[in-house]
Each structure stands twice: as C-alpha cells, then as structure tokens.
C-alpha cells in the first residue's frame, strides 16, 4: 500500500470533462429524436448513428470503471469506499438496463423512422439515471480516486475505452469532449498520446465534431451544459 502513495496519483479532471460531454449529448438526444419526421429513414439513420456512438462511449466508460476503478477503491478505500461503491454498481445496473432498452428500439427506428416517441421516452429515462449517477460519482468517488488510485491505474480506464472503440470514431469522440473541455485538461490527456495525435487531434477533432453536430443537431454549436 505504501508504494501506491510514492507514485503520481490520479488526475481526475478528465472524468469531469467526459461527464460534461455526456450530460450535453444525452440531454439533447430526446428532442433530436422527436424532431425526426415519422418515416424519414434517412434522417433517422443520421441521428441513430449518433445515438449508437454515444451508447457505445457510455458502455465502455462504465465497463472500465467496473473492471478497474471499483476493485481498486474497495481494496484500498476502507469504509468510505465500502459505503459508496455498491451504490455505484447498482446505478451502473440501472443505466445498463435503460441502455439495453435504447439499443433494442434503435435498430427498428433507424430502419423505418417510426417509433421515435417510444425511443425518446427511453432516452429520457436513461438521462435521468445517468445524470444522478454522474453527480454522485463526482461528489463521492472522484475524491477517493485522487487518494487511492495512481495515475497509471487511472489511465487504464481510458486505455480500456481506446482498445474497445472503433478506431475511426476516436477523433470524433475526442472532439465531442473537447467542445466544452478545459484546454489544460485536454493538453494533459494528449500528453500521453503519440506525437502525431498530440499535434493533429487538437485541429482535427473539433472540426469533425462541428461537422457532425451540423448533421445531427442542425448547428455546429449545440447548447452547452448549463446554457
């Protein structure tokens, strides 16, 4: 245990940045889905692909916490971790159930453009449990991670997502995060990336998201969290 504290500890600012992106995009989804005219399969496919990407990002984000973060906190965090981690796990199960409902409806809606209201209602339920979870995680879990998880261990969660994500989606996903991201935190995240990514991602990722947002949200500057 002593060796843990001799190493750099987790910089959790990237988690706040990821949460901001998910709050924004999942908050916008129900209305974006409802705005698709019934039977407009072309538009449903554009929006549906966006929903699918966000659901994958969310799933991998929580899978990384399940596999990496919770075991470390339970091992090292004593009573504080034992009191909160089971709640986090229960919330993950609730989110995964809502996520599964979204996935079950999504393919049919993308193929027909019909059933959008039902999908929007499920997305609203997903948003409710997700927002509750992220707020509690920021209040209770991230302070524990700063005390008990090393920087290298924290990085393993991000690596899990990178390994499981389709490579072609990574610049767009990073652009979604950068849209409201703190430039200092973005720089810190990229500091561990290969040189080409460090040089190109700050230029390419925002452009990809702006183009993507125009297609999905009908604007390159969708409403930010809190706006």
Number of domains as seen in the coordinates: 1
How many distinct helices? Answer: 9
What would you report as the Rg, rounded to the nearest angstrom?
A: 18 Å
Helix coverage percent? over 70%
Q: Whole-number average pLDDT?
A: 95
SSE series: HHHHHHHHH
Identify low-pLDDT runs: none
Structural class: mainly alpha
What is the 3D form? Answer: globular
Beta-strand residue fraction: under 5%
- What can be said about the biggest beta sheet? none
Q: What's the end-to-end separation, in Å?
A: 44 Å
Number of strands: 0
General description of the model:
This protein is mostly helical and 227 residues long. It has one domain (2-217). The chain contains 9 helices and no strands. The radius of gyration is 18 Å and the shape is globular. The termini are far apart.
Short recap of the structure:
The protein is built from nine helices and no strands. With 227 residues, the protein is mainly α.
């Amino acid at each position: 245990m002593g060796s843990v504290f001799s190493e750099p500890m987790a910089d959790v600012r990237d988690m706040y940045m990821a949460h901001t992106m998910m709050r924004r995009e999942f908050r916008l989804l129900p209305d974006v889905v409802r705005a698709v005219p019934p039977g407009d399969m072309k538009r449903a496919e554009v929006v549906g692909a966006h929903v699918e990407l966000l659901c994958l990002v969310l799933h991998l984000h929580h899978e990384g916490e399940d596999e990496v973060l919770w075991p470390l906190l339970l091992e090292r965090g004593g009573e504080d971790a034992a009191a909160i981690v089971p709640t986090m796990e229960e919330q993950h199960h609730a989110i995964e159930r809502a996520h599964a409902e979204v996935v079950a409806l999504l393919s049919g809606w993308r193929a027909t453009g019909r059933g959008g209201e039902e999908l929007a209602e499920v997305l609203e339920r997903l948003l409710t449990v997700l927002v509750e979870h992220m707020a509690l995680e920021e209040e209770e879990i991230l302070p524990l991670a700063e005390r008990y998880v090393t920087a290298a261990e924290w990085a393993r969660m991000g690596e899990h997502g990178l390994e499981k994500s389709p490579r072609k989606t990574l610049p767009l996903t990073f652009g979604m995060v950068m849209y409201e991201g703190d430039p200092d935190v973005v720089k810190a995240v990229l500091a561990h990336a290969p040189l080409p990514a460090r040089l190109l991602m700050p230029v390419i990722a925002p452009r990809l998201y702006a183009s993507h947002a125009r297609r999905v949200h009908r604007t390159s500057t969708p409403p930010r969290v809190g706006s």
